[in-house]
């Protein structure tokens, strides 16, 4: 039986939102809902955990870029638009962002490459920039009164088709103030690590001995990048009909150290993937290389609590079955 190893990673779930499909969502930012200035939400730099990073430079004028890895399933994706987040210290809730430059690039040895697949490095594709309702604050506990870093939600047009494979979503921004633009890291209350160290990078033009891509870090803790990618996943003929015959069970459930996942109703298990998500929607476990109708999952370093498991068809990223997994 095949074992799954646990990890923190990006959420990649195709769900319909206002007529669009949300292909990728890593936009975890709020640590203290409604506790900020004027009742806004707070994205706190959790100094009590040792965090010091307010945001990473995404200033186009000085040559910085942000980039996050995505994996497109076998059916491919038609991409429509990208939403990213940023702030300029000292701004009001009226956006001071003047441009957003975005593209999806090829993968090169698990790093962003210079090859553009969709979008442009040189075209301002921003269509909107508005206050997200979230403030980035430097303290870890209430009261949260600093209103100098309102986070803006920026949308850019990013249109094209992607075949199955690994790519990098890449962007930078311009603004009218002297500070930044800055990119806040993905933030989860009680967690200093929100990235993997291999999926979220910043291009550093002043790095020595030469400019290079480097993981987004807060000290020695890997940070994720918040963004949303919209589009649609083409329907694959026969997938939905096949899904009606498939069932999945996990036992024991609740599990202590390990459990067995059993899939019935199909012999084509290589077409399937099994994912587990925590209550914040973060992917914490996966098996995308299923080669048996039963395999073992392990608790690893996961905390006790409630989780959601999902069995999906890799051909169109559709959910076949989902359920609750309890870890005790």
Structural write-up:
There is one protein chain. By secondary structure, this protein is mainly beta. The chain folds into 2 domains: 222 residues, no CATH class; 89 residues, Immunoglobulins (Immunoglobulin-like), CATH 2.60.40. The chain is 2% helix and 50% strand. The strands form 6 sheets. The protein has a 7-stranded mixed beta sheet with strand order 3-4-19-8-12-11-5, with no helix packed on it. Strand 17 and strand 18 form a beta hairpin. The longest helix is centred in the last third of the chain and has 5 residues.
Number of strands: 26
Taken as a percent bin, the fraction of beta residues is over 45%
What is the 3D form? globular
Low-confidence stretches: 1-18
How many discrete domains? 2
Secondary-structure-based class equals mainly beta
Mean pLDDT: 87
Strand order of the largest sheet: 3-4-19-8-12-11-5
Q: What Rg do the Cα atoms give?
A: 20 Å
For the sheet with most strands, the description reads: 7 strands, mixed
Distance between the termini: 23 Å
Q: What is the H/E order?
A: EEEEEEEEEEEEEEEEEEEHEEEEEEE
The number of helical runs is 1
What are its keywords?
single chain, 328 residues, mainly beta, Immunoglobulin-like, 2 domains, seven-stranded mixed sheet, six-stranded antiparallel sheet, 1 helix, 50% strand, disordered N terminus
């Amino acid at each position: 039986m095949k074992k799954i190893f646990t990890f923190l990673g990006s959420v990649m779930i195709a769900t319909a939102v206002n007529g669009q499909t949300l292909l990728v969502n890593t936009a975890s930012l709020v640590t203290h809902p409604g506790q900020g200035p004027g009742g806004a939400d707070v994205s706190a730099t959790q100094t009590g955990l040792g965090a010091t990073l307010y945001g990473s430079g995404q200033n186009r004028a000085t040559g910085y870029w942000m980039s996050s890895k995505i994996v497109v399933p076998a059916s491919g994706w038609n991409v429509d638009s990208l939403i990213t987040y940023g702030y300029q210290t000292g701004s009001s809730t009226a956006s001071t962002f003047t441009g957003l430059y975005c593209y999806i690039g090829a993968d090169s040895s698990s790093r962003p490459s210079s090859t553009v697949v969709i979008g442009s490095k040189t075209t301002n594709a921003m269509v909107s920039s508005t206050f997200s309702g979230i403030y980035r604050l430097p303290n870890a506990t209430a009261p949260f009164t600093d209103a100098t870093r309102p986070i803006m939600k920026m949308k850019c047009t990013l249109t094209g088709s992607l075949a199955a494979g690994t790519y990098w979503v890449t962007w930078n921004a311009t603004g009218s103030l002297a500070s930044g633009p800055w990119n806040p890291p993905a933030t989860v209350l009680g967690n200093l690590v929100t990235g993997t160290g291999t999926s979220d990078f910043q291009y550093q033009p002043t790095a020595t001995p030469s400019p290079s891509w480097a993981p987004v870090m807060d000290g020695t803790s890997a940070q994720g990048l918040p963004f949303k990618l919209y589009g649609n996943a083409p329907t694959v003929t026969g997938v939905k009909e096949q899904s009606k015959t498939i069932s999945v069970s996990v036992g024991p459930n609740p599990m202590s150290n390990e459990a067995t996942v059993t899939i019935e109703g199909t012999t084509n298990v290589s077409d399937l993937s099994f994912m587990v998500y925590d209550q914040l929607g973060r992917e914490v476990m996966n098996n995308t290389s299923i080669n048996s109708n039963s395999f073992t999952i392990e608790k690893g370093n996961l905390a006790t609590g409630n989780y959601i498991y999902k069995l999906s068809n890799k051909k169109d990223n559709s959910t076949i079955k989902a359920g609750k997994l309890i870890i005790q």
